Amino acid sequence: MTFKIGIVGKPSSGKSTFLNAACLTDAKTAPHPFTTIKPNLGTAWLRAECPHAERPCKPRAGKCVDGIRLIPVPLVDVAGLVPGAHAGKGMGNQFLSDLADADALVHVVDASGRTDAEGQPTKGHDPAGDVRFLEDELDWWIAGIIKKDWAVTRRKAELKAFKLEAEVARQLSGLRVSPEQVEAAMKKIGFTTSADDSKILELAREVRVLSKPIVIAANKCDLPEARANVAKLPGAVPCSAEAEYALR
Ligand SMILES: Nc1nc2c(ncn2[C@@H]2O[C@H](COP(=O)(O)OP(=O)(O)OP(=O)(O)O)[C@@H](O)[C@H]2O)c(=O)[nH]1
Ligand SMILES: [Mg+2]
């Protein structure tokens, strides 16, 4: 199975520039929000030592060059996410759906603080808030799917018509969430059929953490304001998609 990575973030954070730098694509980029509507696709190449003794080996996917395996990793760059996206704001649920089959996410954050939460030009915006909002949007989106049929799910699970974790896993299978991940998340937070909205949100969060791990790319680090902001983003990888693209 191919491992797919979604590139996410608010509008104008530099997602398409990041895709172009990683995959040498020519996705359209511009200094205003919602340049990308339909997702852009690219392929990045992961380098790993080839496990085969035979040289050159013939892998099913990718290439083997002098004992170094080039493994193709599909990347999808989606439209910008704005606060309230899970409820349909901005491009809303459409691009949340474009992320459904991603196994991991790169959250491209504008570390310069020169764009606001909607991607409009500003000064001094705190990117730490962008990190939280994106996680919240993903959690509400997943919680929304569970809540849609919750009354029926709860009743049938109480009547032992099916196992609760198996049914919730079925509802989330389109998001590449496995039954094992749902089971582990439920066990961790003590989730039962008596769950209320806040418990469902807690479950969604655990499921998201397990099924869509996020790496934060602190972008636009070529701009002077980025230095102080990166210090406020623990674990983020500083980068400049624009500089990287130009270099490649
Ligand atoms: N200084 C600087 N500007 C960047 C960098 N990466 C992207 N930009 C600029 O930021 C603007 C937005 O870049 P895009 O790649 O179009 O951003 P996006 O996140 O795909 O935007 P939407 O598709 O509208 O959501 C463009 O003007 C880019 O040139 C960077 O590393 N440094
Ligand atoms: Mg874009």
Offer a quick outline of the entry:
With 248 residues, this protein is of the alpha/beta class.
What does this structure look like?
With 248 residues, the chain is of the alpha/beta class. It has helices spanning 15-23, 93-98, 127-148, 150-158, 164-171, 179-189, 197-211, 226-230, 241-247, and strands at residues 5-8, 40-49, 63-65, 68-77, 104-110, 214-219, 237-238. The chain starts with a strand and ends with a helix. The model has no long low-confidence stretch (mean pLDDT 94). Magnesium ion (MG) binds at residues 15-16, 35-36, 77.
Shape: globular
Compute the number of strand runs.
7
Report the helical percentage.
25-40%
Strand content: 15-25%
Distance between the termini: 29 Å
What ligand species are in this complex?
A: guanosine-5'-triphosphate, magnesium ion
What is the N-to-C order of secondary-structure elements (H for helix, E for strand)? EHEEEHEHHHHHEHEH
Largest sheet: 7 strands, mixed
Q: What would you call the structural class?
A: alpha/beta
Rg, rounded, reads 20 Å
- Segments where pLDDT lies below 50 for 5+ residues? none
Q: What is the arithmetic mean of pLDDT?
A: 94
* Number of continuous helical runs: 9
Any key phrases for this structure?
about 250 residues; alpha/beta; 9 helices; about 15% strand; binds magnesium ion
What's the arrangement of secondary structure elements?
Layout: E1 5-8, H1 15-23, E2 40-49, E3 63-65, E4 68-77, H2 93-98, E5 104-110, H3 127-148, H4 150-158, H5 164-171, H6 179-189, H7 197-211, E6 214-219, H8 226-230, E7 237-238, H9 241-247
Helix pairs in contact: 1-9, 3-7, 5-6, 6-7
Guanosine-5'-triphosphate is lined by residues 9, 11-17, 29-31, 33-36, 79-80, 219-220, 222-223, 240-242.
